[in-house]
Structure formats: structure tokens, C-alpha cells
Write a structure and sequence with these properties.
This protein is α/β, with parallel strands linked by helices. It has 10 helices and 9 strands. Strands 2-3-1-4-5 form a 5-stranded parallel sheet, sandwiched between helices. Strands 7-8-6-9 form a 4-stranded parallel sheet, covered by helices on one side. The longest helix is centred in the C-terminal third of the chain and has 22 residues. The mean pLDDT is 91.
């Protein structure tokens, strides 16, 4: 049997992951107490079900401590067990709870932040026994489903590092979650070309203008080389999420174009990467 245990921070996307696995033929059960895993495995095996996914999390209370030992014993009994741990930053989790108006399982009458802090402490040992750690900070629902498919069904080499390439406008502030920030305002600005002003860095005309500007090709090459140098070292360090932010004045032209080029290069190198253009739709006064 192939058993996938989905765990991690509450609000990090476990329901989405279980739905994706269900779509691929897995029998999915959520909120199962660890002590019942051996019995469920026995029942599913008797029914001839070879693919099973379980959602196990902090709702199990103190019984969650038994999960690492349950995983070990299930493997020793001859079953293939994979533990997927969903990680997510405090700020993103708080935002998600506020949007859904849900109460954190450990918060009770306290603030959401307090519940999240307690949960991180209780999940420390579970995280250490995970086969995959997936940081869902920047994922849309569709992107999270795609990542699960990549890990378990596409037979691609997977690392726990997810790279987000983010374009932004300095006039709207530097993204607070940036790990690396690059300023491309030295490149000639398409905003001052009337035919290009209302377009974005995703349009071929703007792309041609930006990439043919003095210094842009050399900058792009040096940036790609630096990322190629850094990424394996971040993976070795155990980093889960890397945000590469590229900014111009308004986040509409130059940064969008170059972020896309970096994204395409990383995709070709089979990196786990997503792209986001934070300010592309804002009323920029400069690109």
C-alpha cells in the first residue's frame, strides 16, 4: 500500500492537498487519530485499496505525539509511507484565518497568533520526520494542487525549496517577505514611450524594448548565474521558501519582464518555482 500522511500547520492547505490526492484515486480520510492508523491500513488492505491518504494534525491533541512511531511501525510492516508537512508563515496564516473567520484549534478565546505559536511547538518533532516539507506561503489553490501532483505523480526531482519570483514597484514598497531584492531602475523605462506606456512587461513589444536596452542582457545573465550558485546552497541549508524580488519604479514594465525571464530560466532548470506580479495592475506613474 502507498500511504500518504498529510500534516502541518492548521490553515496551510491540508484540505486542498487531500482533495488533489482524492482526484488521483486515493481514499482520503481527514482528522484521523494516529492510534487508529494501523487498523485503517489493515481495513483498506483487506478491501484492496492500494492508495490511501490521511489528514492528521493538531486536532489529535496529545495523541499526535505518537505519529512518528506509528509511521515507523507502518513502514516496518511493509507499507510505503510518505509524510507531507505543510508549512506556512505566521502572517499568512493569520490573514487566512481572518478571511475565513475561523478559530484556530489552539487559540480558544485567545488571539490567532497565540494558537499558531503553540502549534509550532507541538509540531516540531512531526516536522522533523517529514519526507517532504512544502511551504504554502505564496501558493494559490491551483498551484498547491500542481505541486502535490509534481511530488507524487510526475516523477520529477523535488526539493523542499520553493522559489517565488516576484515583480514589484518601489513606489509601493519593497515586499516584506523578500529574501533577495534586485533594483532594475537602471534600465531604460518603457513608460516614456507613448506606444508602450499602457502595456506591461508581459507584452512582446515591452519585452523587446527592455531586453534590448543597454545592460539588461548582462544583468539577466549575472542574476541567473548567481541564482544557480545560491539555490543548491539554500537547499543544503534546509531553506523551504526563497522569494526573489525584482523591482522597478511602478512594477509594470521592466521588473515584470525581467522577473518572467528569470522564472522561465528556473523552470527550464526544473526548479520548483512560481511567479507573481504584485503591482502590475496598479496605476503606475513609471515602469
Amino acid at each position: 500500500m502507498q500511504l500518504i500522511i498529510v500534516t502541518g500547520m492548521s490553515g496551510a492547505g491540508k484540505s486542498t492537498v487531500l482533495k488533489a490526492l482524492e482526484d488521483y484515486g486515493f481514499n482520503c480520510t481527514d482528522n484521523l487519530l494516529p492510534m487508529f492508523v494501523p487498523k485503517l491500513v489493515e481495513m483498506e488492505t483487506a478491501e484492496g485499496n492500494d492508495n490511501v491518504a490521511l489528514g492528521i494534525d493538531i486536532r489529535s491533541g496529545s495523541m499526535l505525539e505518537a505519529l512518528p512511531e506509528v509511521v515507523k511501525s507502518t513502514r516496518e510492516s511493509g507499507h510505503s509511507v510518505s509524510v507531507l508537512f505543510l508549512e506556512c508563515g505566521d502572517e499568512v496564516l493569520v490573514k487566512r484565518y481572518k478571511e475565513t473567520r475561523r478559530t484556530h484549534p489552539l487559540a480558544k478565546n485567545d488571539r490567532v497568533e497565540v494558537g499558531i505559536g503553540k502549534e509550532r511547538v507541538l509540531l516540531k518533532d512531526i516536522k522533523q520526520c517529514a519526507d517532504y516539507i512544502l511551504d504554502t506561503n505564496s501558493f494559490l489553490t491551483r498551484q498547491l494542487k500542481e505541486k502535490v501532483i509534481e511530488i507524487y505523480f510526475d516523477n520529477q526531482k523535488f526539493t523542499n525549496l520553493t522559489i517565488t519570483v516576484l515583480s514589484f514597484g518601489f513606489k509601493y514598497g519593497i515586499p516584506s517577505d523578500s529574501d533577495l531584492v534586485f533594483d532594475v531602475r537602471f534600465i531604460e523605462n518603457p513608460f516614456y514611450e507613448p506606444k508602450l506606456r499602457e502595456l506591461t512587461g508581459l507584452d512582446p513589444e515591452v519585452r523587446g524594448f527592455v531586453l534590448s536596452s543597454e545592460g539588461s542582457a548582462e544583468f539577466l545573465q549575472k542574476l541567473n548565474d548567481m541564482l544557480e550558485f545560491l539555490i543548491p546552497r539554500y537547499v543544503k541549508e534546509g531553506k523551504n521558501n526563497l522569494v526573489v524580488s525584482i523591482g522597478c519604479t511602478g512594477g509594470k514594465h521592466r521588473s515584470v519582464c525581467l522577473a518572467r525571464e528569470v522564472y522561465l530560466n528556473l523552470t527550464q532548470k526544473k526548479q520548483s518555482v512560481i511567479i507573481s506580479h504584485r503591482d502590475i495592475d496598479k496605476d503606475s506613474k513609471g515602469g
